[in-house]
Amino acid sequence: MSSAASEQPRPVRFGILGCAGIARKLARAIHLAPGATVTAIGSRSEAKARRFAADNGLDAGVRVHGSYEALLDDPDVDAVYLPLPTSLHVRWATAAAGRGKHVLLEKPTALCTADLDAIVAACEAASVQFMDSTMMMHNLRTGRMREVLADKDAIGDIRMINSMLSFHAHEDFLQNDIRVKPDLDALGALGDLGWYCIRATLWAVDYELPKTVTALREPVKNQAGVLLACGASMHWEDGKVATFTCSFLASSAMDVTVVGTKGSLRLTDFVIPYEETSAAFSVASKLGVKELAIGWGPQPSQHVVATDLPQEALMVQEFARLVRNIRDAGADPEGMWPAITRKTQVVVDAVKVSIDKGCQPVDVTG
Prior knowledge:
Blueprint: H1 3-6, E1 12-17, H2 21-32, E2 36-42, H3 46-55, E3 63-65, H4 68-72, E4 79-82, H5 89-98, E5 102-105, H6 113-126, E6 130-132, H7 140-149, E7 158-168, H8 171-176, H9 188-204, E8 212-215, E9 220-221, E10 227-235, E11 241-247, E12 249-260, E13 263-267, E14 278-285, E15 288-289, E16 296-297, E17 301-306, H10 311-329, H11 336-356, E18 362-363
Parallel strand pairs: 1-2, 1-4, 2-3, 4-5, 5-6, 7-11
Antiparallel strand pairs: 7-12, 8-10, 8-18, 9-10, 10-11, 12-13, 13-14, 14-17, 15-16
Helix pairs in contact: 2-10, 5-6, 6-11, 9-11
């Protein structure tokens, strides 16, 4: 074996805890990401785990476990991707951390901030890495947009942020999907879709928490009381304002607009890019109305960011890098990711409390 080959670090060995639909996407992402591999699949039945492995073209050597406990006890698993219903996150994420497994946790990460704090505390006690799986954070476009927002000459000071995320769910989804079941994912559309809008908003303001949150009036709930559509406004002490709407009942939309004192940034596919290999956004700066108000300009500039890996594989790649630093070099876990997750969860909580209080303003406390 050549010295170059011998110097290659061991890949991070992932166990996938549960066979949810989103786990298929992550199995592919782990396969595509350098330095990562799927080692094991765990389900409540060995037959289901075996079927998942076969259906997703996983290597014949991948272990299949007929219980979540068996996967967590597997000594050849370094990290766990956990796509279980939100109501099960505290139990299984803390169990994974307790067994020394690094935790990549599906969003929404918890039903409330107190539950998330328990998960993060377990990860900190075990010195394992925690990260939520908000994939858009790892798109190369996200870093490029950060550079644009930092350009005070182009954008100025941010004053408004508007976002929307929706898809028109079919009847079977509205009756049977875990995201409409109060015992599985009680946050409904707020947790599944609103999470992204809140994360994008916080990202745009460099994770400064708003002072107050006020839910929009007349949120839509199903008969079990789970949110199918809702929204909120957020207000900062310096006058910034953000609004978001999310819905299982409207056509697909994934828009974010950030407006500053000198310009604006917009994208219309902020959660899932239209294409895997590139992602676009537009920037409008120093706009003005023409004489006689017959038009305005200049036209927004279009920016396209190319990538060799889809955003979910970039997420796995970054998570695996952090895990290797801990496993192989004795580094401490990166604290930025749990901090960002917690701020997102805090705002989700505030929106839920505002809804429960009849859409009254709620102070946000970190």
